[in-house]
Design goal:
With about 350 residues, this protein is of the alpha/beta class. It has helices at about 20-25, 65-75, 90-95, 95-100, 110-120, 120-130, 145-155, 185, 195-205, 255-270, 300, 310-315; strands spanning about 10, 35-40, 55, 80-85, 105, 140, 160-165, 175, 195, 215, 225-230, 235-245, 250, 275-280, 285-290, 330-335. The longest helix has 15 residues, at about 65-75.
Length: about 350
Amino acid sequence: MSTDNKKIRIWFNRSFAVGYHYIQAVRNNEDGMQFEIYGSHRDPEHVSLLSCDYTEVEPVLTGREYADFCLDFCRRHQIEVFVPRWGMRYVVAAAEEFAQLGVKLVCCTEAKLLDEIEDKGNFFRSAEEQQLMIVPEYEVVHTADQFKAAYERIAALGLQVCFKPTRMEGGVGFRIINNDFDPLEELFSTVSANVAFDQVYRTLSAAETFPELMVMELLEGPEYSIDCLASPEGELLAAIPRRKGGGRSRLLEQNQELLDIAAKVASYYRIPYNYNLQLIYQGDTPKALEINPRMSGGLHMSCLTGINFPYLAVKLALGYEVNVPQPEFGLLTTYVEQPLIMSKIVK
């Protein structure tokens, strides 16, 4: 493909450590497309910045102020492609202004859709109504009495109960209600998510109301992440089910049941570029956990199938035709830490 040897200016804002791998995947792409890579983070020593040609420390901002910072960054550096990770909601609210600058956003730019899928309660409701997948037993609560009623109803079904905030990423705020655990034993053990119902109820009762919690059945079977790549219009181009094994092992598995679910989800939501579905089996039934409209924390492992997810998303955003290779399934994968020199201090 011809790019006239012009380096495309691309910006990755604040991300997790795995952002290092995604930036490298874009830089070392199979087409030889050239990029000038910009990175920013609140931490000037963050590892993701080591992949960049130019770095900048982000100010501590939220909301419209953060969107203004991003717009100014793009103006100052003549950014052509922006891959937002942190503050995506603020960026999307200003999507038209980025478009006026000629900046391609590699993310879902529909605020209404983001609200439907990022909020776990909204996601469960729409997934259930549209019969996209089976959801766990759950209730969304914001008072202590609602929490108690939800816990008692789900526990009465013979299910173990857990809860988490409806608007948090990963395992933040996730707790398992276990009335049999020994607090003293827990104190001398590794930190766990176990907590007694009475303890939670007392804490929640101290507030008249609190941010929404999802009370749900604990899913205890194999956990899968499905990394997806879609066109700007949301047409599914690739899906890789990634089964979490013991420790760090991940099996990249051609699970047709999960591939069918990914196809239904793509057909309804039409999420563009990179996104991720998470499900956990309860017995023989895969049940929805969450959907993340962004690159997942384990996407670099799914890239081992031969599909360069981060680069292909950028290529799509730039308007190029993309031919997705046939993925190689059946790969048992893992990962290790890699030592990197950040700088040399001369005394």
